Amino acid sequence: MSQWNNGPYAQDPNQAYYAGQPGYPPQPGAYPPAGGYPTAPPSGYPGAAPAGYPPGPGFQPPPYAPNDPYSAGEQTPFSNNAGVANYSGEDPEVKGFDFSDASIRRGFIRKVYSILCVQLSITLGFIAWFLYHTPTRKYVQSHPALFIIALIVIIVALITLACCGEVRRKAPMNFIFLFIFTFAEAFILAVSSSTYESEEVIMAVGITAAVCLGLTLFAFQTKWDFTMMGGILFVAVIILFVFGIVAIFVHNRIVKLVYASLGALIFSIYLVYDTQLMLGGKHKYSISPEEYIFAALNLYIDIVNIFMYILTIIGTSRD
After folding, report:
1. Which domain holds residue 177?
2. Residue 269 has pLDDT above 80, yes or no
3. Is residue 12 domain-resident?
4. What is the pLDDT of residue 235?
5. How far is the C-alpha of 233 from the C-alpha of 272, rounded, in Å?
6. Strand, helix or coil at 43?
7. How far is residue 162 CA from its own chain's centroid?
8. Element at 242 (helix H, strand E)
9. Measured between alpha carbons, how far is residue 240 from residues 30, 54, 232, 246, 250 in Å?
10. Three-state SS across 87-118?
11. How far apart are CA 7 and CA 25, in angstroms?
12. Is 59 inside any structural domain?
């Protein structure tokens, strides 16, 4: 057997088997070494003990323990090979928060009513503008195409917000579509209100405000759970829709009053239902705090329908 650099672990002085030694790596034909693999490192191995393995105190351990899950070169949970944050779908800062928590729910309610107040302010501004500015009122009444365009915009925006969850939950697209819907709906209400006398519109606004405030307070404190009435209310709306089609062709004052009264009653119950969905807590069903746009949209539609039906009742009773 040859020597390791004229020592015991190489067949040739130019073919050693340790990194950093002359001749590394070994050439073909020289592997494995004659006599088997060495069982102890050479005396020059860093930190080697006099008796060979294990190494002495000078040996540096690897950066990871043998049972470290990342010792095989795996990525850390929030990083990738480029060093860019790799979001796994769960924010570590909000981990552990429960959406049923009272503070989360209160913040959600404040956000919903803030958005709703802005929507109602825009609507009231349009109604007052069309009602008291005569040139604008005459212009919109003489151009029915504007009414049709606004109606199409309402349908498109409403379907988008109701059916596309990504649009409804992602800012700023959710606010953009919500306020497109709000401006179009405010335009429709203003045009419709401009066909009534200003005293009738003011009376309808006052009655609607009183009814909605009373129903909201009732929904906040009542022990009755209206969140289980979703199916019944949906059937009631379908019946009201069919009744409305019949009322178009039956020009009768009593039919109009009955139709408007049923509509005001159904959407008043809907207002309590949607309010309790927003409150959550003791009620059987609740809406997620992520759906603040959807909650504000529901309440706004309820209030708008109550206003229109009350205005129809007042206008029909005065004719």
Report:
1. 105-318
2. yes
3. no
4. 93
5. 11
6. coil
7. 12
8. helix 230-249
9. 95, 88, 12, 10, 15
10. CCCCCCCCCCCCCCCHHHHHHHHHHHHHHHHH
11. 17
12. no
Contact assessment for residue 293 and residue 178, using Cβ atoms and an 8 Å cutoff: yes
d(CA 16, CA 4): 7
Residues 17-70: tens digit of each pLDDT: 444 455 555 555 555 555 555 555 555 555 444 555 555 555 555 554 445 444
Neighbours of 302 (CB within 10 A): 22
- Please check whether residue 116 is in contact with residue 299, taking contact to mean a CB–CB distance below 8 angstroms: yes
Q: 152-188 pLDDT, tens per residue?
A: 999 999 999 888 878 888 888 889 999 999 999 999 9
Confirm whether 147 is domain-assigned.
yes
Q: What backbone phi and psi angles, to 5 degrees, belong to 299?
A: -65, -40
Give yes or no for residue 88 having a pLDDT over 50. no
Single-letter amino acid, residue 243: F
Provide the number of structural domains found in the chain.
1
Query: What is the residue-averaged pLDDT of the chain?
Result: 76
* Single-letter code of the amino acid located at 151: L
DSSP state of 227: G
Which string of DSSP letters, residue by residue, matches 170-214? STTHHHHHHHHHHHHHHHHHHHHHTTS-HHHHHHHHHHHHHHHHH
Partners of 12 in the beta sheet? 15
Residue 66 included in any domain: no
Q: Which two tokens stand for residue 194?
A: 């401009």
CA distance 9 to 22: 13
Q: 98: Cβ–Cβ under 8 A, 6 or more apart, which residues?
A: 104
Q: How far apart are CA 42 and CA 237, in angstroms?
A: 90
Which neighbouring-strand residues pair with 39? none
Encoded amino acid at 289, one letter? P
Q: What is the pLDDT of residue 146?
A: 92
pLDDT digits (tens, 9 = 90+) for 92-121: 333 333 444 678 888 888 999 999 999 999
Distance of CA 169 to the CA centre of its chain: 3
pLDDT at site 243: 92
Average pLDDT over residues 256-267: 93
Reading the block at residue 178, the tokens are: 């919500």
